[in-house]
Amino acid sequence: MNLVQNIALALLILVEGSCSFTIGAFNIQIFGEKKAENVEVMENIVKILQRYDIVLIQEIRDRWETSIELLHFELNKASNDMYDKVVSERLGTGQVKEQYAFFYRDSDISVVSEYVYNGTNDIFERPPYIVKFKAENTVISEFVLVGIHAKPAMAIEEISALEIVTYDIISEMETDDILILGDLNADCKYAPKYKLDQTEIGRKKEFHWLISSGTKTAVSTDCAYDRFIVYGEKLRSTILEGSNGVFYFDKEYGLSKEQTKDISDHYPIELQLIQKDPLRTEL
Q1: Is 149 in the active site?
Q2: With CB atoms counted within 10 Å of each terminal CB, which end of the chain scores lower, N or C?
Q3: In angstroms, rounded to a whole number, what is the distance separating the alpha carbons of residues 92 and 24?
Q4: Active-site choice (149, 158, 163, 266)
Q5: Per DSSP, what are the bridge partners of residue 245?
Q6: Pair 246, 268: CB distance under 8 Å
Q7: Which of 98, 125, 158, 270 is flagged as catalytic?
Q8: Domain boundaries of the chain, sorted by first residue
């Protein structure tokens, strides 16, 4: 953005106020029939998902695709605001197939377009699921979310390929306001910081990593497997400062280790966008 656009956006943010709009990403670890049939687990998952205006769910493994429908039903039954969803096809180069899903509050948000990335010579075990959202109650209004669950053994290669995915999105969706989010396995033995720093996406200043290496996003290890990567200065400037982090639901809900592991081996990551002030009177 040029100087005039930056000044205009800064003024808009000051005028609109600092109400927040929360985006999350949660790997629910083999979410299928067994987990969906566990009443206590489902109640806690629903409670977690209600934190978010838009949330990416990863590792949906259910060939009949009934578990995600049940979760959608239970989420809406428990919520004051209704959620809609958009779900990818079942993805995976091996026998195990997974789906991505975005749940979003349908009163304020809509899907503009979506596609599964199909380039880079099949480097991805589960190709990124790319969705352009319209959320007019946010300062930015439109942005693209890129859901990705990287294969641990190929984490560096898949993360590197996200640079090409980003440029494909800019061409396909005619925007550079892009947030990559999900379980990238982007830390510890799979993708140590020194290796990430050697990748183009790790060192180019256009890509901003919002969860630092060493942040605990996994239940059993101090590894930052789950990440946000922001591309586009307009989107980056509308992320509420200090809002990106991890939701430690076990501490919040007073859960035991067993209860926590029954839900997932990951914690959700989250950030907030600056939202327009609904009480503001237009001049």
Answers
A1: yes
A2: C
A3: 23
A4: 149
A5: 270
A6: yes
A7: 98
A8: 20-275
Residue keyed to tokens 């589960």:
126
Looking up tokens 């591309």 gives: 231
Cβ-proximal residues to 42 (8 Å cutoff; 6+ apart), any chain = 35, 36, 70, 71, 74
Q: Which amino acid is at 255?
A: L
Spatial distance between the Cα atoms of 97 and 113, rounded to a whole number of angstroms: 23
Q: What count of other Cβ atoms lies within 10 Å of the Cβ of residue 111?
A: 15
Indicate yes or no: pTM above 0.85: yes
pLDDT tens, residue by residue, 189-240: 999 999 999 999 999 999 999 999 999 999 999 999 999 999 999 999 999 9
**DSSP string of 28-80, one letter each residue:** EEEESHHHHT-HHHHHHHHHHHTT-SEEEEEEE--TT--HHHHHHHHHHHH-S
* CA neighbor of 136 nearest in space, from 112, 105, 109, 114: 109
Which stretch of DSSP H or E encloses residue 83? strand 83-87
Distance CA 47, CA 57 (A): 14
